[in-house]
Amino acid sequence: MKIKRSKEKEYSINIFKYIIHNKILLKVFLSSLMIMIIFQTDYRGKVQKINLKFNSNGTFKIIQFTDIHETYLKNEKNIRFMEDILNTEKPDFVILTGDNIEGKYCWSKNSVKKAIDDIAKPMEDRKIPWAVVLGNHDNEFSKVSRKGQMKIYMSYEYNLSQDYSTVAGRAGDYNILIKDSRNIKPIFNIYMIDSGYYCLGGYGYIKKQQINWYREMSNKLKKEYGYRIPSLMFFHIPLQQHYEAWKNGKVAGNRNELECPQNSDKGLFSSLLEMGDVKGVFVGHDHANDYLATIKDIALGYGRCTGNGGYGNKNFKRGARIFIINENNTEKFKTYVKSE
Description:
By secondary structure, this protein is of the alpha/beta class. 32% of the residues lie in helices and 21% in strands. It is globular. Mean pLDDT is 90; it is low at 1-13 and 31-42. The chain crosses the membrane at residues 20-39. GO terms for molecular function: hydrolase activity, acting on ester bonds.
């Protein structure tokens, strides 16, 4: 007895055979399948291991340290300054925005771990949740890859970093949710993105895959919670739009050097305008800049360089940027700089 196949089934089998025998189509098919698997299994990243929420007074405070440039030899001045700021400001969360360590002086895994231990201690001792993105110097000449370094950060009890990225060789595209003071639902969000290190012709840039990740995450959060969650975004290398904002926006702060922006603009700022959830983008990288400029209702700003190990203007004191968000109006935020 012959089993009759439906025309639809025969058509599907023939298409599959055609793909198998066509090498180009097969590569496209397998690549698409891999992307689908990645998005389905890891697009949201790992479960946030510490629940963050607004305080009973309705506020949430963040400190941004940037460009610490720690080495295997502990820089006592850097660490003491971090401790002083933490003791004074008493933040709810701390963000390190890249060039946390100096890769060329942390060549081995042991030296990388030693440097990270030193900059982790101020937060860990005080039981303050914290997270990082990497800069262009973190793994420069180091044997420890970006993913390897992120895994070290993730090993600390109070660290909320993640090593996921849509781009090979990068690590740290993730988000962190903050719930209301009653601990009911997320009302604020933080995006963290790896802006890369170097590329032909200049500094690294946020790639199209990462922008797609951001857009997909923004849509997923809206679908899950029913609204666009107001957000801040942090990475290391400034956007090309930072200079445009300085020229044409509402400006506060210092611009003591020319911007060294991402080498290419793949459309992140345009996506931020379209999605509408990100209210501010903050970076490091340029040690003598700490300005904040608002353009098209998005704040583009710098943290204040924290470390004494890198280049800089001797008259431009090291510091940190502080953010205060109020749960009654998460569309807005207050920010200021504290220096030595």
